[in-house]
Every structure is written in structure tokens, then in C-alpha cells.
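Practice problem: predict the structure.
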Amino acid sequence: MTGFLVRLAQLRIYEAFQAELGSRNMTPARYSLLAVLHDNPDSRPGQIAEALRVKPSNMASLLTQFEADGLIIRLTDPAERRAALIRLSDAGEALFAEVDPIVTALEGQAEHMLSAAERHELRRLLGLVAAR
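Answer:
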């Protein structure tokens, strides 16, 4: 089954991620949040949840953890005083700078399992599935 094979591939990639970054309390979800906030500072929590395709309640929990770890700063949105804007703190930016090269290297290792043409075709096909 296609879904099962995709899940097995995901598990293989996540195991490598855990082996490299688990000691830093880094998970794919935590890295994804770091990356989104690095690339999109001053985002609203709902925008972040939408970008990462997670439930707002799960996003709230992850943001609370990040805040407790000193990785984010919550600001009041000047356009709507009741809304919060989220950005990485200096510690969050430093953590991203530390782990991003490791994640990039892991991505490269996963990609080298396939030829360039195979990677292109896999991405194309997964993009079709994801878009529907």
C-alpha cells in the first residue's frame, strides 16, 4: 500500500533525525517550527499552524514549550491588539543556526538514496498526492 510505504520511508528519515538531534531535544516538529519562524518572523499562531498543517491546539502547546525554553518572543500585533505575533528569540535563532546545517546534511543523505531523476519524480508524485 502506498500510504504504508510512505510511512516506512518517513520512519527511516525520522530515525536518522532522532539519532543526530535527539540529544538536543529536537524533533521534526520542533525543527519545522524553528524553520517557519526563522523564515517568517512576526507570524500569528494560526498562520504558523496552517503552514505546518497542525491543529491550533497542538500549535499552542508547542509555542508554550518554546516560550518556556526561551526560544520565542510573543509580541502584540499593532494592527489588532488582541492578536499575538511570534518570532524567534536570540536563543531560538542560535538554535536554528546550530541545527539547520545538521538537518540539511540529513536531507542530503536521504536524497542520495535516489538518483536525481528518481528524486525529481518522487517529489513530483508526492506533490500530486499532497495537492489533492
